[in-house]
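Annex B, item 7. Sequence and structure tokens for protein A, then protein B.
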Amino acid sequence: VQLQASGGGLAQAGGSLRLSCAASGRTFNNYVMGWFRQAPGKEREFVAAITQTSGSTLYADSVKGRFTISRDTAKNTVHLQMNSLKPEDTAVYSCAAKISSGDYTSTARYNYWGQGTLVTVSS
């Protein structure tokens, strides 16, 4: 599966942005979809994930209550709605996909990665 992320940009603190990740292929529903981010000088970290069938979601504590992950199966797309943005949310955000269930927060478990999209939040 090929992934294409979009929607990054500049936002002010307290503002919102919506990221999208379009997936190619007809097996989109077989994949767990995740969002990760990497800030300058830091390691890549888990942000959110959504499961294949039930659509259960999981969030990092740092974004819980502010970010929402969703999937549009008709369009093979996953979205990350980011509200109440903070300067510490500034990072390159990447979407990823994996077949297996469980261990949703580990980068090593994801098989496919899209290119990153930069999110910059000004104070």
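Protein B:
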Amino acid sequence: QVHLVESGGGLVQPGGSLRLSCTVSGSIFSINGMGWYRQAPGEERELVAVITSGGRLNYADSVKGRFTISGDNAKNTVFLEMNSLKPEDTAVYLCYAKWVRYSGSPTEYQDWGQGTQVTVSS
């Protein structure tokens, strides 16, 4: 069984910073990509940032220049550094990972974490 455990959410004032982390554990061969989505109440889930195993990055336009995603392959961990936070960044942030069970497997799995609340408010 594969687990994703997130940490780092909380309450911060506008203009502040937070760092989220997400670690994958379980019986996997390799991770093809990890990233973060977010979902605010009454809103659709939206992509925030993703990173592939090859190091390719993709960000939502709304967070470019403020958020930075990075990964530690050895620890199966992804980080999201969030700076200059705005009230509209308030949401539950969910980590996901795409992974394969063995070398050469044609099947890619995707799992999600439980989510961590980020609240930006004065």
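Comment on protein B: The CA atoms of residues 40 and 96 lie 17 Å apart.
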